[in-house]
Amino acid sequence: MKINDVILRTVTRIVVFIILTFGVYLFLSGHNTPGGGFIGGLVLASAIVLLYLSNDIEKVQKSLPLDFKLVAASGVLLATGTGLGSLLFGVPFMSQTFAYFDLPVFGKTELTTVTIFEAGVALAVVGVVVTIILSISEDE
Amino acid sequence: MFSVTFAIIIPFIIAALVPFIYRRFKLLHIGWFVMLVPITLFVMLARLIPSVASGKTYIHTYNWIPSLNINFTTYLDGLSMILGLLITGVGSLVILYSIFYLSTKESLQHFYCYLLLFMGAMLGVVFSDNLMVLYVFWELTSVSSFLLIAFWNHRKASRLGAQKAMLITVSGGIAMFVGFIMLHTMSGSFSIREIIANVGDLTDHALFIPAMILVLLGAFTKSAQFPFHIWLPDAMEAPTPVSAYLHSATMVKAGIYIVARFTPFFGGDQLWFWVVSGVGMITLFWGSFNAVRQTDLKALLAYSTISQLGLIMSLLGLGSIALQYGYSEESIIYTQATFAALFHLINHSTFKGALFMVVGILDHELGTRDIRRLGGLMTFMPFTFTVGVIGSLSMAGLPLFNGFLSKEMFFAATVQIMNADVFSLQTIGIIFPIIAWIASVFTFVYCMIIIFKTFLGPVQPEKLDKPLHEAPVGMLISPIILSVFVVGIFFFPNLLGGYILKPSMESIYPTFGDPANLTPSIHAWHGIKPELLMTIGVVLVGALLYRFLKKWKPIYGLLSSRYTLNAYYNNFLSFAESKSTIVTNKYMTGLLRDYLVYIYIFFILTVGGFFFYSGAFSPSFSMDVRIRAYEVILVGVMAVAAVAMLFSKSRMTATLLNGVLGYSIAIFFVIFRAPDLALTQLVVESITTALFLLAFSHLPDWKKERVPSKTKLTNAVISVGTGAVVVLVALAVLNYDRFETISAFFENAYELAGGANIVNAILGDFRGFDTMLEVVVLFIAGLGVYTMIKLRAKKGDENIENK
Would residue B292 count as lying in a domain? Predict the structure, then answer.
């Protein structure tokens, strides 16, 4: 069955970038405004799922050669790793810290270890969602 | 002391690295690399021998969970030193041996990873002072032993043996865990040193006896004491290096270590004395009696290990009586049993390790270890023969080998115990030397079987698959080193006594003052005493019994195979399996509907029940804000969608209606100013829809199901009940004032966590632990979906389990 999905594909090309940007924005802004690792990861995942929906799997995999199982695993490793990392500084497991820095372009910016942790969460979410959806869709 | 903590951690780190190194260096056998670990640790520990011998102990605490009294405390004293040296020393030799035993075709990265895991866990057991940490390492040794026994997991016997070992040792471990908790309840501390220091106040505690029994259960299962010994012969399915290492030299000594470690606490109690020495004696006899009937050399060695472990255990029991007397000139004599136990612990590791390696060589080079197919190997395998003879004669307790010294001390201790005037030993104490003597006769017989049936007698090349030849040099190095120890310890036993055994006597008898008084000088010749006469008797009667083995062997046939412990174990296992299948099938129906019913009933009963009983269902409408028109409309839409879903004709309609519900909730979140939730709800809704579309083609037709009206009615009641509880709870929480709200704390998120978004500060910082575990759970679920779909057996795939 051949479906005429020209509109979907054309729209997807543009929309995916908007969604991806939005996902990254959500991830970064999560500390002070709505957003965060989980929701950012979900939005990124939905963009990737949209890609898979509008194009066929082989095509996407050629342009986006990622093993999403590894993405998920590295996310989990990063999230737990930040927890363990705090042990190196002699503070209890999963302690987070933050500080303010003056960066050249951004001005006074807050940098926090939560961001690393959240990055792990986001990666894990993206990896798991895409892995599940891909494996179900590839199932005969 | 940093280096002891270090010694525990290093094997784990290297174990994690092994797979990567293995991939890099395919050409070199990875065992060479792994061998560096135990050698380094052995040298590190050996350097501390002189200072430990002078009475110094090393302690280092790393605060882990101080609020629960659980700290990573390592403690190095004489007793843990013995075990530490055995673990690293025998470990080095076993790894050297395994390099030649296992070809590079085997999955070596797994083997050495598990082996290092075991080594780290075992070092953790002996060096931990905190009971909880010790328990974790204790179970880890069971797990790694399971993995190693099942190393050749394509064989059914390996898997069953691993399962048996796991079930028995872990059950014992859990019993011990409960015992540890009781010890903590009694003393308020998890530290073994502190518990032992407080022993005086605790002996009359109601939990003293239960805790003792539970700890002993753990020790007995691990050290394969009767009636838990049945796992050890089956564990022989493991590769021989594993049997030599775990199942003769180290892991099975963990139970003995625990008994020795807790002797200052429980020792002196009558029950402890009788249970430890009694079980030890029974095991000693039963193991040696059963070893004689074995035809598989490895099974023979397994039973002999059981028997020797029983010997050491009973000695520890006999030695504990000294604590009943307290320190005096007269009671010193009883501590010699404990001294003999520690001495034999070391000796057993040397000669039994060597013997296991010899059997491994036979198996590896000739393809069999069945004594009915072996014979006359002396001329073909002179080195193997020499090591085998040294090991066997030492085990039999003959002079020129270290086994003689400790065996004599064992006899001396059993004779000595008859003089004790407590526990009515003067009347029934006579059973100790009798059982010891009988068991030793059988020990002598099976040692002769090892020597004569394999190395002497007629050669049977037609029964062997491979030509007769000596083993490669590499495989011989380790057993030869061990047999050098066997002979060396006989000639210089007091070196061992002074440096290694003396400080550990202090660990077991901390109240007895100068350990030098507890350290007898070991002599091979000490005049004609009962123990020497007993040895002579053993040799004479043993030789006769061996000569007429064929005549009396039929008595083993009298033991019905239906009433053995193994049969009980198997029956129990199949009984438990079938019964639990019946129970599980009763409620695991495979219908999603039923599972939801369980969940909702549970929800109504617990949540609804709690609110009802605590009288919290008192919705007051005083705080109400005005309900606006669009909220009413939204609720109306949701209600219509929900009811319509029940009557929808196609799956697609139902999905769309479900989507309506989901997006309406998102709108509610927007109205109530919860942008985070709204965003999440929207994206989750979209992704679920995509997921559903994907799954659409896999789903069966949407059929009208015929459900009895009774079920329908119950389901309706449950669903209405669930809805009602949710509504009531939602109304009730507005006025709930039973405990203070915690939200005030989070309002300082900007100062505490530097984040203005409270939701995110809670997720990432305040309750970061939850989030981390949620991520892990999510990942596990993802892997589950992936494996179920991708790796399931297709129709027509062959069953690869029992090749």
Answer: yes
Residue B317: strand pairing partners: none
Question: Out of B683, B695, B755, whose CB is closest to A42?
Answer: B683
**Alpha-carbon distance values, B702 to B241, B591, B593, B709 (Å):** 59, 15, 15, 20
Residue B187: inside a domain, yes or no?
A: no
CB contact under 8 A, A79 and B676: no
SS3 B602: helix
Q: Give the predicted TM-score (pTM) of the model.
A: 0.81
ipTM confidence score: 0.91
Angle, in degrees to the nearest 10, between helices B270-291 and B208-222: 20
pLDDT at B547: 86
pLDDT of residue A65: 83
Among B547, B567, B601, give the residue marking a domain's end. Answer: B547
Residues on chain B bordering chain A, Cβ-to-Cβ distance under 8 angstroms: 675-676, 679-680, 683-684, 686-687, 690-691, 693-695, 698, 753-757, 759-761, 763-765, 768-769, 771-772, 775-776, 778-779, 781-783, 785-786, 789-790
Does the beta-carbon distance from B759 to A73 stay under 8 Å? no
Mean predicted lDDT score pLDDT of chain B: 87
In this structure, are residues B304 and B352 in contact, taking their beta carbons and an 8 Å threshold?
yes
Residue in A39, A80, A138 nearest the CB of B683? A39
Among B750, B768, B680, smallest CA distance to A114 is for B768
B299 Cβ partners below 8 Å, 6+ apart? B233, B236
| SS3 of residue B465 by DSSP | coil
pLDDT tens-place string over residues B393-413: 999 988 889 989 999 899 988
Query: What pLDDT does A1 receive?
Result: 46
Number of domains in chain B: 2
More confident residue, B619 or B535: B535
B493 is a domain residue: yes
The Cα–Cα gap between B230 and B303 comes to: 9
Looking at the domain assignment, is residue B616 inside a domain?
Answer: no
What average pLDDT does range A78-95 have in this prediction? Answer: 78
Total Cβ atoms within 10 A of residue A116:
17
Point out the domain boundary residue: B489, B513, B547.
B547
- Which runs of consecutive H residues, i.e. helices, occur in B429-523? 431-449, 473-491, 493-496, 502-508
The 10s digit of each residue's pLDDT in B224-283 is 998 899 999 989 888 999 999 988 888 999 999 999 999 988 888 889 999 999 999 999
Helices (H), B188-326: 192-197, 199-202, 208-222, 231-234, 240-244, 253-266, 270-291, 297-319, 321-325
- pLDDT of B479-511, one tens digit each? 999 999 999 999 988 888 888 888 888 888 888
Q: Nearest by CB to A124, which of B765, B779, B785?
A: B779
Full residue range of the structural domain in which residue B759 is found: 742-791
